[in-house]
Design goal:
It is a single chain. The chain has about 700 residues and is of the alpha+beta class. Among the domains are: about 20-85 and about 440-700, Alpha/Beta hydrolase fold, catalytic domain (Rossmann fold, 3-Layer(aba) Sandwich); about 350-435. The radius of gyration is 26 Å and the shape is globular.
């Protein structure tokens, strides 16, 4: 009996040792490259992983995915979670930009489910149309535009043409930000006027053609620098090679008034100074050799202040801007006199997010403390109407303006996005249909708290959990933030987060500096040379959750995407002992070389450039890739898509290789690369698989039991 007990103890110890032993990662070769920054020499052993498109990178991805697949093969609930996500995906909104073509009484919708095929999760949303008394009929199936078997095609936008017979639609291949534009006749179902290299999915129709944005052709759409953006005019029936160049620059936007004025805003660099400008041109000269622009607003800036044209007349422009106040205001500019303006709507305590002219009013969308407000003003700036949306709900896409209503989208972390309609006559919002969910919304609690950051600044944090959760003990917490580019972060509906909550987890989100929740000043205080501020804000939030007993270090996981990936990777570099697990999704991680690829140099205002001596000193203090050191790291899952041309995937490749080299703990460092995926996701099959990996990783590391949605 004693021998049996001794043997049992021995086997148990062997099991423990094996379970805690370091994973045998696939080897990644090191090819040292010296990079010189002023007086510093920085050796990069994994710079070869930047060679996107090379066969060595393809092999690297295959080996990494196989290793990750083997790791997850030992977790028996990955497929169950993915199935649960797919089965409940139909509860989320099924269309966007619903366009009603009134003249011929038919509608257009893009459905996220494909009722005409059983394997809809492997496909892309399909564009349908219907007449008033008929059922939905397929108009555009992206799969028919594939050029090879595994290619993934997505409809990114669609528009009705002025003739009410043709529909324009844009496609993206494999998640790239590049778009292709096609036109299809509703009656014949034949396409015509194909255009390539579009930088955006928006077009603006004008007479017998339309304006559009594009880039120059490049050899590698994933990594090659995009360069300037161009505005062209295309005349129906002609070749794209005959299109007329209107202007070029960066951060371009334009609008026009009838057949008279066209206004373009953008950024110009002259004598090493950056200028923001608004220029006007008479578009009656469109058929001549050139369109001559005359500036009526121009000022030097290192920060990309906002200038949105709200309404345009023959001699003036009404503009939303934060030039003269960080919260934003509405100003009226004389387009015939440089920088001559009047204030129409003064800045409010709330942040001015958006504005549009409709029903004889300037309608301003404001934001404050996780709540949106819509306020209607007359042209003299007097308040006519106001409406407050429910707290914690996000508002998207005011579109399809007709008579006195327009459509928009609304949802929350526990409520799927649904189609809504706003009545500007009565000034209220109403649902455009019912939304069903596989749970009870009232079962969740959303707390709004504040904590002190490192410098005493108060930071808001949202904490979400099930009402029945026992808060007297430390619980698993999934903590996140964004804090970049002056963007307002809404916690959107996500089945992954709901399964996390159902499984006994808490979800927390901090509204740190660098975001736009408190205006441009809030953004600037966490950007460029102040970037370390937003990173410390994030870490202070983690400490708050621990100190207030929501969780402890053994149950705290962090997750971040894109700019949020910088937060996560920086946090585990500086304070690895605070976290049990980390997930970094499409993160920007090599801050010394990001500028050399794709959109990189377009992020200069947010981060600075390593070619600038002052910027370099700041960048090297927080660049995640360059601040990895020999220490015990928490379990880390790194995710990217091989066609991400916004944050080129080499960031994730290099970070994974170096993190594995330096990690002294037995915690797994995993990389998963989704094939033919861009920055914003893929089809339902890929997205649900990636969500299932994230949840399975967290449940496994934190020793949780998954609970599925009914």
């Amino acid at each position: 009996m004693k021998n049996i007990l001794t043997l049992s103890i021995f086997l148990f110890k062997v099991f423990i040792c094996l379970s805690q032993s370091k994973l045998e990662y696939p080897s990644t070769k090191k090819i040292p490259v010296n990079n010189y920054y002023f007086r510093d020499t920085v050796i990069d052993n994994y710079q070869w992983l930047e060679n996107i498109g090379d066969s060595s990178i393809t092999n690297f991805i295959g080996v990494q995915n196989k290793f990750t697949e083997n790791y997850f093969s030992n977790i028996n609930y990955v497929k169950n979670i993915q199935t649960n996500i797919k089965e409940n995906s139909s509860y989320s909104i099924r269309y966007f930009n619903s366009t009603r073509l009134k003249a011929n009484e038919f509608w257009l919708n893009v459905f996220s489910e494909t009722p005409l095929t059983k394997n809809y999760e492997f496909t892309s949303p399909i564009l349908y149309f219907k007449y008033k008394y008929t059922g939905w009929e397929e108009l555009v199936n992206p799969l028919s535009y594939k050029t090879y078997h595994d290619e993934k095609i997505f409809i990114t936008n669609y528009y009705k043409c002025n003739d009410d017979e043709n529909v324009a639609f844009t496609l993206s291949r494999n998640g790239l930000d590049w778009n292709e534009l096609y036109f299809i006749n509703i009656n014949t179902k034949k396409t015509h006027d194909k255009l390539e290299y579009l930088s955006r999915s928006e077009v603006v129709f004008y007479k017998q053609g339309f304006f559009y944005y594009r880039y120059n052709k490049v050899a590698n759409k994933i990594k090659d620098k995009k360069g300037n953006e161009y505005i062209y005019f295309h005349e129906f029936g002609k070749s794209q090679t005959e299109d007329k160049l209107i202007t070029s620059g960066t951060n371009l936007n334009f609008s026009f008034y009838k057949d008279t004025n066209m206004i373009v805003s953008g950024i110009k660099i002259k004598n090493n100074k950056v200028y923001k400008y608004l220029s006007t041109a008479n578009i009656k000269t469109l058929n001549n050799d050139s369109v001559v622009f005359k500036p009526f607003l121009i000022f030097p800036t290192k920060n990309r202040y906002r200038i949105d044209i709200i309404n345009l007349s023959i001699d003036s422009a009404i503009i939303l801007t934060n030039i003269h106040h960080p919260n934003g205001m509405i100003e009226k500019y004389d387009i015939n006199s440089l920088s001559l303006f009047d204030t129409i709507i003064k800045p409010a305590q709330e942040i001015l997010v958006d504005a549009f002219y409709f029903c004889g009013k300037i309608n301003c969308l404001y934001y404050m403390d996780q709540t949106y407000y819509l306020v209607g003003y007359n042209l003299k700036g007097k308040v006519i109407n106001s409406y407050a949306f429910p707290k914690w709900y996000y508002i998207k896409g005011f579109s399809d303006f007709k008579k006195y209503t327009c459509d928009f989208e609304m949802g929350s972390i526990v409520t799927p996005s649904r189609a809504m309609r706003f009545n500007f006559k009565e000034y209220f919002a109403e649902s455009d249909g019912k939304t069903y969910v596989p749970y009870k919304n009232l079962e969740y609690v959303i707390e709004s708290k504040e904590y002190k950051s490192f410098d005493g600044t108060m930071i808001s944090i949202a904490i979400i959990y099930k009402r029945t959760l026992d808060l007297s003990k430390a619980n698993p917490v999934l903590y996140s933030a964004y804090g970049g580019f002056g963007l307002i972060s809404d916690i959107e509906y996500n089945l992954k987060n709901l399964i996390w909550l159902e499984s006994g987890g808490i979800y927390a989100f901090s509204y740190i500096r660098g975001g736009g929740e408190k205006g441009k000043t809030w953004h600037f205080s966490g950007a460029a040379k102040n970037k370390n501020v937003c990173l410390e804000d994030f870490i202070s939030g983690a400490k708050y959750l621990i100190n207030n007993h929501y969780t402890d270090c053994s149950k705290l996981a962090i997750i971040g995407s894109s700019h949020g990936g910088i937060l996560v990777s920086n946090a585990i570099n500086k304070y690895p002992e605070l976290f049990k697990a980390a997930i970094c999704n499409v993160g920007l991680l090599d801050m010394l070389r990001y500028q050399y690829y794709s959109y990189g140099d377009g992020f200069a205002d947010e981060f600075g450039l390593s070619s600038d001596s002052l910027d370099y000193k700041v960048l090297k203090t927080y660049s995640p890739y360059h601040n990895i050191k020999k220490q015990n790291y928490p379990a880390t899952l790194i995710l990217t898509g091989d066609h991400d041309d916004r944050v080129v995937p080499f960031h994730s490749y290099k970070y994974t290789a170096k993190l594995r080299e330096y990690n002294q703990s037995n915690s797994p460092i995993l990389l998963n690369v989704i094939k033919s995926k861009g920055h914003n996701g893929s089809n339902l099959q890929d997205n649900s698989y990636e969500d299932a990996l994230q949840l399975s990783f967290l449940f496994n590391v934190l020793k949780m039991k998954p609970k599925y949605l009914d």
